[in-house]
From TrEMBL:
Domain named Response regulatory: residues: 8-122
Superkingdom of the organism of origin: Bacteria
GO molecular function list: DNA binding
The protein's name: Response regulatory domain-containing protein
UniProt lineage: Bacteria, Pseudomonadati, Planctomycetota, Planctomycetia, Pirellulales
Modified residues (4-aspartylphosphate): D57
Amino acid sequence: MQLPPTMDVWVVDDDASILESLDAAFIRAGWATLAFGSVSAFKEQLETSSPGCIVADLHIGEASGMDLIRHVHEVAWPAPAVLISGHLTPTLTVKAMRQGAITVVEKPFSIEELCSEVELARIRGLEMLKAFYHRDAAREAIGALPDGHRAVLRELVDCRPHKQIATRVDISLRTVEKRKKEIFERLNVGTFTELLNLLQLADVSFLSTELQLQKGA
């Protein structure tokens, strides 16, 4: 995946007049936008759309803006979101933030206020995407290692000496050293500390005899 240079704005609202008004305001602000009148319409285009910042009402028909955020995070990427509500409470705000909203704007609001919040969310969103893409690339590189290299990597992470690794994996000392060198080259790390940092970034756990990539974090 390639990190986009900027972030589009996805507007979701079941009120056609509000949807049109917000879409026009964001276009005037210089942002590329996609406007959706329902959650189902948004979901239909999610897979083919570039990463974007969600601007949605907390209540969209029978759906919820928080459900929308959760769906995007589960099936696509960690999209930033600005939610709008006419009946905001501290409990709702906390709940929305826990679901991944960057902020919640209470009605009535000025377009300038909303655009300011959206711009901050777009900036934060690019930071989130950068971390997501780096983690994805790290997972892909680790997952591409041959089984024999994974076995050596698992022992290296446990800080075992090369001779002990050779015995445990049932290979020669020379093979251990060769695979370690190739692991460092394939993962583009130069030191053991860099290797551990990469594994932490990828959120990797070694369980039993199999390397598993934790998808839920």
